Amino acid sequence: MLENSLAFAQKLDAADPLRHMREQFHFPKAADGQDEIYLVGNSLGLQPKRTETYLAEFLRDWRELGVRGHFEPKHAWLPYHEFLTDASAELVGAKPVEVVCMNSLTVNLHLLMASFYRPTSTRFKILIEDHAFPSDHYAVESQIRFHGFDPAAALIVVKPREGEHCIRHEDLVATIEREGASLALIMLPGVQYYSGEVFDMQGITEAGHKVGAHVGFDLAHAAGNIVMHLHDWHVDFAAWCSYKYLNSGAGSVAGAFVHERHVARTDIPRLAGWWGHDKKTRFQMGPHFQPIPSAESWQCSNPPILSLAAVRASLDTFTEAGGIHPLREKSLKLTGFLRFLLESEFKGDIDIITPFEPRRHGAQLSLNIDLHGMKAKDVQKKLETQGVACDFREPNVMRVAPTPLYNRFEDCYRFVQMLKATVPAS
Ligand SMILES: *Cc1c(COP(=O)(O)O)cnc(C)c1O
Question: Which domains does the chain show, CATH number per domain?
């Protein structure tokens, strides 16, 4: 039985097998010099302490070895992205040949759509959701136009039902079945950034494949947050950024997944570059592109090692915590406790739009606030001045995401007490 008290929160922290992981991170300070109550790891993850060491290692290698840094140091630059492969694969439930760290998220979506959105005169539509992250919407629309189609006809947008905030799985499946053979691609998030809803990626992939469409996921809010099995689910492709739950720093190198059954195909066009070319013959500098038979063949350029070092630091921190499974286990308890506290204090006064069922939510709860004339935006601004970091998204949601790597149960308790001081329950 959960209790709404500081003592109980501290008891949960004392029993938490991952509590030592908090020491691995730097915390921004509030005005009073204390650590901020940092509940915005869904937007920008905190800096792991080892990141500085890993970056310094790269700077040292470059300083001392110059061009020999490509081959000689322990973490040589030529294969540097390979040091990230196993941990990345594990995070998303993939085989190592299926993942690569490269570019940024939206760029990866474009590169993958170049391969997997191959519209014909009869099969040309892309299905997205109504509240898609703007970048995803722009990317998809521009792909449609790039191929000479009209988004008015080719873009299928699934909406939540009237008065609801989340999209029902049965509505997605019904739309997929209705569009059938006209559907070329389904592009959905793994976790919806606004509502915090987790989509049934396996069910969507099955439904998509049944009508002959490719299925890709944007895992910006899913990677490092929930457990996934992209390989077993037969997802065609996916991409994710590394600066949200993956704590690799703003704009750091992103990840990409291509299912094993596609990676060695030469009939799939890639927007090619030399880093996607077979490693054995890359430096023969020949004119014919021979793709590496793995997701690496989608790489265009030699990558920014400085940024890959930050990703490696983050992945090592995940590995030290035991990987995504124990983190998800704690995350469900942490977010469950936060929901319990909100419901104890506010009853129905604050509308938590994130689904209740564990398999339908990640770390984040989205609070639709309209209380005593205060909206989500006002509340978030006020809390910010008091050392609480959470965020606001238009039109009216405050997002709160306790992350299991560095948040405590006590943070959830203190947050709810401060929220109560800002907007008293009626
Ligand atoms: C954070 C986020 C992005 C950001 O895209 P970048 O290319 O990393 O700037 C895109 N899509 C979704 C769904 C996101 O949550």
Answer: 6-35+323-422 (3.90.1150.10), 55-320 (3.40.640.10)
